[in-house]
Please model this.
Amino acid sequence: MDGLEKIKYGILFNYYGKLLNENQQEILNLYFNEDLGFSEIANMYKTTRQAIRQVIINAESRLDNFEKQLGIVERIKDYSKRLQEILNNEKLDTKVKEKLKGIIESIEDF
Model:
């Protein structure tokens, strides 16, 4: 998995991780948030590297399905982009621009 794919699934995991089973949550947390490799996780669980890889592949498939059905991440990116376009409008009052910046940051931190 390349860096962009790992970032994509890390984001999806942050939004939809609680919808996975406990085992998938634990393993994906180690993989995405703790940056452990398959072998390191396999040693912790006393299983094979291939078994961990399969758990991650299955969980990523579920994350893709959640995003396909719910589209939360895509909507958040779209809202942020639209607000950024409004923010770039030179006619806006400075106070309004500051409020928009705060909203954009809140959305992106969500």
About this structure: The helical segments are 3-16, 22-33, 38-45, 49-70, 72-87, 94-109. Residues 73-109 form one domain. The two ends are 25 Å apart (CA to CA). The chain has a mean pLDDT of 90.
